[in-house]
Amino acid sequence: MNNSISRLAGRRRLLQTGRLLRTREPYRCFSCAARYAQQTPPRSDASKTTHFGFETVAESMKESKVGAVFSSVATSYDTMNDLMSLGIHRLWKDAFVRSLNPGTNPLTASSPSEITGWNILDIAGGTGDIAFRMLDHATNIHNDTTTRVTVSDINPDMLAEGRKRALQTPYGRSSRLDFLEANSERLDMIPSNSVDLYTVAFGIRNFTDKARALDEAFRVLKPGGVFACLEFSKVTNPAFEAVYKRWSFGAIPLIGQLVAGDRDSYQYLVESIEKFPTQEEWREMIQQAGFLIPENGWENLTGGIAAIHKGVKPLKSS
Amino acid sequence: MVQPSLLRQTTTGLRKATTTSPAHPQTPPYPPSQPSTAILAAALSQVPTHGFTSTSLTLGARAAGYLDVSTQLLPRGVFELVLFHLATRRLALKDEVDLGEGEGEGEGEGEGEGKKMGVGAKVRRLALARLRANAPVIHRYQEALALMSLAGNIPASLKELAALSDEIWFLASDTSVDTSWYTKRGSLASIYAACEVYQSQDQSTDFKDTERFLDARLEDLRVVGGSISDVGQWMGYTAGSVVNVLRSKGVRI
């Protein structure tokens, strides 16, 4: 069943940008589709390829395609997340922040000069969901008013949404919250060994080169700093997985079409979830980048629909 | 006739080689090279002042040269600190307790030269030594007991308690391999757990009350165990007699 879905999805020309680059396709009937597929020459400019949902695209293309997706969903992002996850994404994000327990109580410092707070880098955190939660946690749980969050996103539309929302929080005009438009594979503006906590929630799936992003995370983190990733993952229970697949491939693009008026972006969303590595593979990748893995390395949320992965940068990199 | 001494030799050899109960993995659970061990060890020294709290963990991480955020290496948080205390104290038993044996001769259980300690006396001394090892943190020990009793932590706590009970019986040179293997470990575990709860409220100097409490519980065990075996003996005798009486009356059994 999955096969037929993926074949259908693979044929669908996904996005506006993709469409512009091609000449208009001729009329395709069922009987001539196979012939048409054979005639289409492989893209010659694609020296290296990566996947964009179930489509294979040139690496240089993925960034712009993902950009188009998130530009189109930025304004309806929260409504859509609520509808697609039945409100559970809020619980995941809360659990993520609670497990990280950001912030330090100033009373634990031996001298006032020691109170520096954490320097947190929230990658792909455009709308500020995670950033506001972390600042709230630090302030309310630890009475910590020095911890800072830099929200980085590659997409200016998502960042604009985050800036708008920040004004409704106490952090909007404070120096504790910063916004940065950057590609997380090239964080040149952030010095090495400067970040306590690097978080990426539901973002790393869209990166063109995940290994490179991990290397960059390793570079910017202080020794002892933590890489934490909240991302869709693989459901462990087969029965639940069948239901989940039905929901994600059947309902989510439909909801996207009805509510956000954009089916293709949400089709991409579910396909990219399907393409993301399993818990074990992803842990391996984090370990390869040089991180220490605490215990088994991940924590499943809602039966594995999402998972929290963590890695700690060792004091001396061997 | 040769066999028993051979057997004894092998157990002695085994005991020297492993020094902890062979039922548990050879590698210690907290290798010193691990960063998490460094954090835990440093955090444990903060427990007398800050208790079994995340503050101790944070300060421990700082003392070990890590950042506050590095406590993420310990996914179970403060409970890891409790487990670390329990496991390190358990593993330290074998080095710290002098069971009055000379250099290396592990034989002479019960009978033998002069006043060798019996298994019971060894168990008492080991249990007492383990209780005394709680002394530096005893004023914060109720926090640890509370953490151990949380539903999610109970399996790990019971596992650690079972490991301690096993360790004590092993170090006391108990080699039984019948059902008493289970009853011994089970009863010692429950006695030890009761003693720890009692100890956390002990106001006496040098834990004299806890010592008395432990002795009373061990005495109870001896009395109950003795009664059970007496009752068993009586029932076996009576059943045999009944069968014989019936046979003498011509019943074919």
TrEMBL record, chain A:
- What kind of membrane protein is this, topologically? Peripheral membrane protein
SUPFAM superfamilies, from UniProt?
Answer: S-adenosyl-L-methionine-dependent methyltransferases
**Cellular component terms (Gene Ontology):** extrinsic component of mitochondrial inner membrane
Establish whether keyword Hydrolase is in the entry: no
EC no. given is 2.1.1.201
The protein's role, per its UniProt record: Methyltransferase required for the conversion of 2-polyprenyl-6-methoxy-1,4-benzoquinol (DDMQH2) to 2-polyprenyl-3-methyl-6-methoxy-1,4-benzoquinol (DMQH2).
The entry assigns this protein to a family as follows: Belongs to the class I-like SAM-binding methyltransferase superfamily. MenG/UbiE family.
HAMAP family with a match to the protein in the record: MenG_UbiE_methyltr (MF_01813)
Q: What is this protein called?
A: 2-methoxy-6-polyprenyl-1,4-benzoquinol methylase, mitochondrial
Q: Which gene encodes it?
A: COQ5
UniProtKB/TrEMBL annotation, chain B:
Which UniProt keywords are listed?
Lipid-binding, Mitochondrion, Transit peptide, Ubiquinone, Ubiquinone biosynthesis
Can you give the residue ranges of the COQ9 C-terminal domain? 154-223
Q: Which residue ranges does the record annotate as region Disordered?
A: 1-36
Q: Annotated pathway, please?
A: Cofactor biosynthesis; ubiquinone biosynthesis
Q: Where is the protein situated, by its record's location annotation?
A: Mitochondrion
Q: Which GO terms describe its cellular component?
A: mitochondrial inner membrane
Among the record's GO biological process terms, what is one?
Answer: ubiquinone biosynthetic process
Q: Name one GO molecular function term.
A: lipid binding
Compositional bias (Pro residues) at which positions? 25-34
Enumerate composition-biased segments (Polar residues): 1-19
State the protein's purpose: Membrane-associated protein that warps the membrane surface to access and bind aromatic isoprenes with high specificity, including ubiquinone (CoQ) isoprene intermediates and presents them directly to Coq7, therefore facilitating the Coq7-mediated hydroxylase step. Participates in the biosynthesis of coenzyme Q, also named ubiquinone, an essential lipid-soluble electron transporter for aerobic cellular respiration.
- So what family is this one in? Belongs to the COQ9 family.
Protein name per Swiss-Prot or TrEMBL: Ubiquinone biosynthesis protein
